């Protein structure tokens, strides 16, 4: 079991048992008035029973649950939770613990950051995706309609606890969803790490702890250099410019099955790798390798002609846009990134054509 600690900006990410030891030290040191654990309907059932025995406190611990799913990651849910916090006697010395996947940590972090102008919060991510993605960087927020993470703040937790035992309850498709962000970390920053995933059948899930640790470490190294995303942190947007638009479109559409975040990002990475190829940033061999690895893990998503236009429309509202032009983070060879790349629509359409072929 991993016991290392990763030092992020003004907080630590602890792994497994060490996390609970640190949590209890933190509770002893800080005079909190009460503790609120925010869960969704699935983490309430599967993860909360694992967590509660670890918490050593005489304080009142209240559980606040909301319905699971990205469609509930909105300001209406926040309003409900702010009301409950108020009714249950939440004050400026309350502690919020967010136990769940990215929806819970994003929304819970936002609720805590804004309640009474901000109370302490701790993230305990329970899915592979939230462990390697939402755990680092202090991004908290909610969706506005089908625009992902449009409302939010950058504000860091008191600590993050990554406990891989929660993954025992995570279904395969959710594990694959998280894997997409790990693959991304290799593509943008560490070629050797990417190569560990070339033959997915040989991955030893006992070694998953080690892979998760490295993934968090990569994201942390990038975020530390640029906490507010003025520069290099934009590297983390690789696959997300188109991926988020695709995810948002499928979320809103009456006729489409909603995609998991990683499923949409996997498509985004193929499309944006194609764009990187056409801009002479990667070789044909590198592109073929990326496309083959991703297509072996993720099922093809079907795009009709009529889907492309609305997806491009959503790009216009992307938070990464500046001065009205769409900015992409592309890869320059595997393991390196080139940010602030303008991409013309023609090339995006070609990328979709190539993806379908």
Quick recap:
The chain has helices at residues 17-29, 41-46, 48-51, 75-87, 102-114, 128-134, 172-189, 191-195, 208-225, 240-252, 261-278, 284-297, 305-315, 345-356, and strands at 5-8, 11-15, 34-40, 61-66, 94-100, 120-125, 139-144, 147-154, 159-162, 327-331, 337-342.
Distance between the termini: 43 Å
The CATH H-level superfamily of the largest domain is Dehydroquinate synthase-like - alpha domain
Structural class: alpha/beta
Strand order of the largest sheet: 1-2-9-6-5-3-4
The rough form would be described as globular
Biggest sheet layout: 7 strands, mixed
- Helical content stands at 40-55%
Question: What is the number of independent domains?
Answer: 2
How many individual helices? 14
Uncertain segments:
none
Could you give the order of the helices and strands? Answer: EEHEHHEHEHEHEEEHHHHHHHEEH
The CATH topology of the largest domain comes to Dehydroquinate synthase-like, alpha domain
In percent, how much strand structure appears in the residues?
Answer: 15-25%
- Overall residue-averaged pLDDT value: 94
Number of strands: 11
CATH class of the largest domain: Mainly Alpha
Judging by the overall fold, what is the CATH architecture of the largest domain? Up-down Bundle
**Radius of gyration, rounded?**
20 Å
